[in-house]
Amino acid sequence: MEQKSAWSPAPRVPDSSAREFAFTTGDFERVRKLIYEHAGISLSTAKQDMVYSRLARRLRETRLQSFGDYLALLERGDKNEWEKFVNSLTTNLTSFFREPHHFPLFAEHLKKLQGRSPIKVWCSAASTGEEPYSIAITVVETFNSFNVPVSIVASDLDTNVLATAAKGVYPLDRVDKLSPERLSRFFVRGTGVQDGFFTVRPELRRMLSFQRLNLLEPNWSLRGPLDALFCRNVMIYFDKPTQYKILSRFAPLMSDNGLLFAGHSESFLHAADLFRSLGKTVYELTPRPR
After folding, report:
1. Residue 156 known to be catalytic
2. Cis peptide leading into 118, omega within 30 of 0?
3. 234: closest CA among 28, 93, 56, 136?
4. Is 19 annotated in the active site?
5. Candidate list 27, 156, 158, 227, residue with the active-site label
6. Which of 68, 133, 144, 211 sits at a 20 to 30 Å CA gap from 166?
7. Of the listed 30, 32, 54, 58, which one is catalytic?
8. Does the pLDDT value for residue 170 go beyond 70?
9. Which residues contact 98 (CB under 8 A, 6 or more apart)?
């Protein structure tokens, strides 16, 4: 967490007396504070069992005996463990052409931009790659060419999912809802030990660049102007002040007619001075008063 797509349901953890490690309310509050300060994720009190389940694995891996010791390790600034901590508490739910109503709108937007070079797109919650590759497929289908002046940056907070995205290799159950025509045009079916897997074709993969990016970091390597920004199912994990802070940094990166695509359950009415709705969770810059 893209910057995550969604939290997955976690198995119910037994009461604290049956747990392998003691996990107090104080420990949970420290976790909430750390993940909020580092990644902007606002954990509800209902997530205590999920947090225990995810982080107990890290205690076993680090061979620490208590959550107090583990959280002290983080608070001392162990960069390697910070990465694993964030990866543990973020889960990506994604698929090819998720929320499909956005892609025809994106295609129409691309047609209006024809002739501009380059067209710049940012997918800010790339997850395991299905969304940015769906964006790239839409570009190719719109212009009927792999050789188009479109630059797609795909970023995510989670380094594990970015590694998967960069490889572009998916099992059948991740691509089986794509049409046979799309599978044939954009993927190579594996053989031998790769049987049952599909690899993104190199000419599609070359349209994307992948990078780790934390939306809460003070400096982003990414630069505008952006013609389209996909930030879908990310903001639901931030409180309103954090959402506004991020949106206020998005706005200067947008081209004058750039579009911001949000998730179906997200609304930016509290940032109406920055972005105005075009319907179907698509936003444009709010015109500045003259």
Report:
1. yes
2. yes
3. 93
4. no
5. 156
6. 144
7. 54
8. yes
9. 5, 130, 131, 134, 232
